Amino acid sequence: MIAEILLVQAIACGVLSAIVASNKNRNVAGWGALGFLFGVLGFIASIAVSEVEETEQSSRTKSTSRQGRKKSTAQDFDPDEHEKKCPMCAEYIKLEAHRCKHCGHEFSQEEVEQQIEEARRKIEKRQEKITQDAKLYCERSEVMVHTDMLNSDGTCPACGNPASDEKHPLEEEISGDGS
Ligand SMILES: [Zn+2]
Ligand SMILES: [Zn+2]
What we know:
Elements: H1 2-23, H2 28-68, E1 83-85, E2 92-94, H3 109-131, E3 135-138, E4 143-146, H4 171-174
Antiparallel strand pairs: 1-2, 3-4
The structure holds zinc ion (2 copies).
């Protein structure tokens, strides 16, 4: 099929060149041959160009897939890294704890599951907001951090910790009581 297109293209170039040549009273056969050759050369050139584009594209897709793999999502949620406040003694205990280590208050299995689910949803919401254009407050460094300023791996430029951790509440959450 490609060979046929190539041949048709070359003949068309040759015929066009020959017509132009005959109109100008020039060597019809010579110009026809030149047109034929240029048609082939043009095709060869286009093959070379498309090959270069292909290798450029494949290297580009390789680098983007490498970046995409590094994304951290709410799926990485680890309840072990989160805490809850005991309703009885107001001490912070592990999110998964069924019994407060400070006062002995007990949580039912349902309560614990609900608390984990709530924490997970909170993190997910926060990450959703972060991906939208948001300002964060870094409690460690006490500075405002715009999400545009985050490092390429999603960490805070001020303290180097993940932007999704507890020390980075969103601006609207901390400046809500401003008059
Ligand atoms: Zn307690
Ligand atoms: Zn920070």
